[in-house]
Amino acid sequence: MNAPANAGRATGARVGSPSRKTFLTPFNTSSRNKVIPWPCSRPSKPRRVLPGIARLTPTAGQALTDVLRDHTIDALLLRSMTEGPDDLRAPLSLTREALYSDDPRAVAIRLFFCRVPVSESEATALLANGLSEKLRTTGILLNSPPNSWTFPLHLRIVRGIYLFSDYLGDEPDAVMGAGETTALLYQAAGPPQPVGRVLDLGCGAGTLALLLARGAAEVMATDINPRAVALGAFNAAINRIPNVEFRTSDLFDAVTGRRFDLIVSQPRATPSASARCPART
């Protein structure tokens, strides 16, 4: 559940076990009296392999975000050094000045936000005291010959929170980060006063859960995608947000019988009918 769609909100709700039904509304096209369901009939194309996250550690992530904060890399600076839209599917585009600048802040934005390879010397200077090697060991940095390094994940800053996710594409397990509709849902659902328990159903990388945690006693974040749960927990740890728990769950399975003061959800645009026709983001 990692792509923008209609937002839902419920308050004071008890979670039950809903009946499991699969809803599919394919757009069928006919060709020579043959019905071909969409999207299963689309020509197959090679899928990008998602970056490995098994070796990610909160310690390395916290060290990286500390460096970014020390260099005052925030959303305002990011906007000043990049241009064009941010649609979650492609890296940000650098301004000409940022592309050729030797400023460590420009190097950091090129590497972590614009997916531009940087030289080993630039990476080592930015990530001093052995941090560059630690990030390579955990898979946060990847070797990009000749003698340069890249950052394979999607990284954005939302209200001071650093959020790791995936660049969205055709991969069904790609984890969505913070998008425009996420911001709209947060503005609509954010409680004006502190609340007790919050449920983020289909949490993706945990954007809503981490934002809502600031005004809640505890937040439960669930997703059917184990990769989303892993990245969400990683984001909570590196931002030092302790009152969010992430669980792998099909809809309400992991929270049946629990009560929440606020429930938010940003589900996939299209439900999955089968493994052969995966949900599309």
Structural commentary:
The structure is a single chain. The chain is of the alpha/beta class. The protein has helices at residues 58-70, 75-81, 96-100, 104-112, 120-126, 131-137, 180-189, 207-212, 226-238, and strands at residues 8-14, 29-31, 34-36, 82-83, 93-94, 118-119, 142-144, 148-150, 154-158, 161-165, 195-201, 216-223, 244-248, 259-265. Helix 1 packs across helix 9 (226-238). The longest helix has 13 residues, at 58-70. It is globular.
What key phrases describe this protein's structure?
single chain; 281 residues; alpha/beta; five-stranded mixed beta sheet; three-stranded antiparallel beta sheet; 9 helices; 14 strands; 27% helix; 22% strand
Summarize the structure.
With 281 residues, the chain is an alpha/beta fold. Helix content is 27%, strand content 22%.
